[in-house]
Structure formats: C-alpha cells, structure tokens
C-alpha cells in the first residue's frame, strides 16, 4: 500500500479567543511544563518523542491498550517495547489500529489482542495515538495516513484516549492544514465522491477528490486502506466553519461512506510538545 505525498501544511496561528476556548475545555493547569526548556533546537521528531514518552507514563501494569498509527504513535510503541523488555509493565497488551502498527508492535515485543470476541480484552483501558489536527475544543482530524476506520473503532472502544502531538498540530478550526479523509467502499467510489460533492458544494472553499498514489512513473492508482477501501479527501479553504456534528451526520448518511476522520468529543487528554521542550497537558472536562 502506498502513501500519498502531501505538501507542507500552511502555518496557522491561534488567536487569543482560540486560546480562551482551549482554557474553557481543559481541566487543571493547561500549560503544565513536564520538562525544562532546552537550549538546543528541538526537531519535530524530538517533539513527537517527548509527547509520546509522556503519554506512556499513563500506562499501568495489566492494561489493555489501543495502539495508534503514525510517526508520533511509533515513538510510543518504541517506548512501550523498552518498558516491557525491562519488566516494568507486566501484563500489558495492545490492540493495533493498522497492519503497520501490528508489525511494529510485534517487532518491539508488545503482545497483541484482537478487538472483541473471546480472545479480545474485556475493555480497552487506554488508547494512545497522534492526530493531524487538534482544535480548541479537543476535536481532532485523524487518518490522513489512511487508518481512520480502525483507529476510530479501537479508540472509540476505550475508556481513555490520550492524543500526542507537537504544537504545529493545534489549529483554530478543523481542516485548516489539510484534508478530512473519508473512507469509502471501492464499488462506485467515483459515484460516492459525486454524492459527497453534491451535499457539501455549498460550503465556502470546499472541494473533494479521490486520493491517488503513484503506481509507477507513468500511472497513478487509487489509494487502498488496510480494509480494502478507498479514501475521499475533503478540503476546506479556511477550515470548517459549520457545525462539525452536522457535517459528520450528513457524511455518514451518504451510501458508500464507511467512516470519516473527524474524531469529535473522543479525546480525553491531549499532550502537546512545545518548541521550547515543555509539555502542555489538556484534559477534557466531562
């Protein structure tokens, strides 16, 4: 399975009003520093690693975990593997959200479980995953890598969902920096794309397309998810200004749509690694 090439996201600045909304939706100290500022310049990978390691601190022996997908979640998998090999987290096992995560977890020694059934855990205590965007209400865009369906199934089944990001992922509105991915069945995918366009064409700056990947030098082919489905990418010029739950409902009513990448009201904790090396922990108020 290929991966779509994406252009670097535009910079997005949070206004003071956005920051006030963040404060209204988090508990405790929303700007808690978990590590001292560093004099050296941290790379984006450094920031991802810092956030991931902080998230793993929530893991306790005997927990069943939801194991996320993507470059940030990969750092959490590596840390979990280190702790398991050191004997620090006995009885911990995980439910992977993609084939890639399944392979990674196996490689670092994390025992795996299915979702549901006789062999699955009675409950998923905690899921750890990254996000493409986080808005001031802690809603997310996820799944630009193509794993949104399994991510939403696993993370929606858990008791707690910890999201790990660097500060570049904080946005004033969802879809500011890229597409909202929508998983669709391959049968009639162009037809489903047309239905999506018909429903949302009235929204300012909206356009949609089927995600393509390079098959070879001369030919593109449709992106295929782990589930054998395709992805429609929904773009909004200045982010989504409408009601997110209404847009979600409209999408899920379209025949051929399986799921979308807006994770609304699902994150319980967001851990943000800041450029200066500090950590901001935001907890959703229940």
Automatic annotation (TrEMBL):
Family: Belongs to the ribose 5-phosphate isomerase family.
The enzyme's E.C. designation: 5.3.1.6
Key words, A-Z: Isomerase
Name of this protein: ribose-5-phosphate isomerase
Source organism of the structure: Urochloa decumbens
Domain of life: Eukaryota
Pathway: Carbohydrate degradation; pentose phosphate pathway; D-ribose 5-phosphate from D-ribulose 5-phosphate (non-oxidative stage): step 1/1
SUPFAM superfamilies on file: D-ribose-5-phosphate isomerase (RpiA), lid domain, NagB/RpiA/CoA transferase-like
UniProt xrefs under Gene3D superfamilies: 3.30.70.260, 3.40.50.1360
Record field: catalytic activity: aldehydo-D-ribose 5-phosphate = D-ribulose 5-phosphate
Cross-referenced Pfam families: Rib_5-P_isom_A
InterPro entries (alphabetical): NagB/RpiA_transferase-like, Ribose-5P_isomerase, Ribose5P_isomerase_typA_subgr, Ribose5P_isomerase_type_A
GO terms assigned for molecular function: ribose-5-phosphate isomerase activity
